[in-house]
Amino acid sequence: MVGEARDPEGDAGPLDGVTVLDASRVLVGPFCTMQLGDLGAEVIKVERPGEGDQTRTWRPPAFGEDEGDGEGAQSAYYASVNRNKRSVELNLASESGREVFRDLAREADVLVENFRVGKMAEWDLDYPDLAEENPELIYCGLSGYGEWGPDRDEPAYDIVMQARGGFMSITGVEGGAPVRIGVALADIGAGMYATQAILAALLERELGDGTGQKIDVSLLDGQAAWTSYMAANYFASGEPPGRMGSKHPNIAPYQAFETRDGYVVVACASDAFWPRLCEALDRPDLLADERFETNEQRVRNRDALDPELDASFAELATAEALDRLDEHGVPASRVRDMAEVFDDPQLAARDMVDEFDHPTAGPMRVPGSPMHFSRTSTTARRHPPSLGEHTEAVLREYGYGDGDLTELKNMGAIPE
Prior knowledge:
Blueprint: E1 19-23, H1 28-38, E2 42-47, E3 62-63, E4 74-75, H2 76-80, E5 86-89, H3 95-106, E6 110-113, H4 119-122, H5 127-131, E7 138-143, H6 158-164, H7 185-207, E8 214-218, H8 219-226, H9 228-237, E9 254-258, E10 263-267, H10 273-280, H11 284-288, H12 295-300, H13 302-314, H14 318-327, E11 332-334, H15 338-341, H16 345-349, E12 353-358, E13 362-367, H17 391-397, H18 402-410
């Protein structure tokens, strides 16, 4: 429980002493529990014997082999969301495996799962079952649609959530096909809400009577919440917003412009930047035009403004445009790929790449934690684990001896 430090490795994080039982897989749950692990929690990842998290097979690419098919290689997808965890192979389809899980849950502060709604209840592993023996437990269930409502049993995938949650209606160019955002935003968004809710529940437990509670987070709810000002625009106007490419419905200019050899993104987020942009582009005529004097006027007259700016940027190379914009203090950037992003000295200064020497896959690099504290740490203490790497070590910590482990292997609860 909270306050009992269990991880001797690395610097202590703000959640040092918190134990998380991670019964999740793929992305939404593992992203949540990785954040808790980054914050110092002891995360025990429960995986199916012989198979593990589905994302272990989502390769290439993989670390450890050029083709990603060598023994000991580790999928890049899996590695991206599973650092700071220990892996335990446990067969929850068997009663003996479920009994071991109950032993682990009896000592846990937090449990995270994303099985189909109702599956944990079928196994007698739902919150009411586990809270009987561990009333302090904070239990977070993640699903596509939540634990109640007419669609609670429907399958959920990120692209379906991005479509159903409205994001694909506002992503892409005007008049073009709907576009999926390039990362699994629905999963990551729900994973962030789950982390936030778990931290709030931990605080409430400490400030209250010490009792835990159940948390229910859904991907669709997260997408609806993340529509934020786009939904508010609809509520205010009665008109559903459409696709605008890189443009912003409430700010102009706030978009990408094509140059002679690429693209430049410009963000005139206040009227103070407008004269600077006109000066950078040597367009005093635009600055003198009353139609563009304020942001509201520029938004209303976007159809007249955009062709003028398009023409000015089309005459410039990307580097020249960026030099001019920087000289005049206009927020701007070229559109960078992943290689450029992670070659950025700013990100290097912020330690935004974690590097591991994995025992079988060799060197690996993944994005680091964006959470920085003045006193506590978010150190990457553990590499993303191999399947079942810590099964026996963890169970021994919970009181299982040699004979117990042999019996569990014979009953099929853990692998041979």
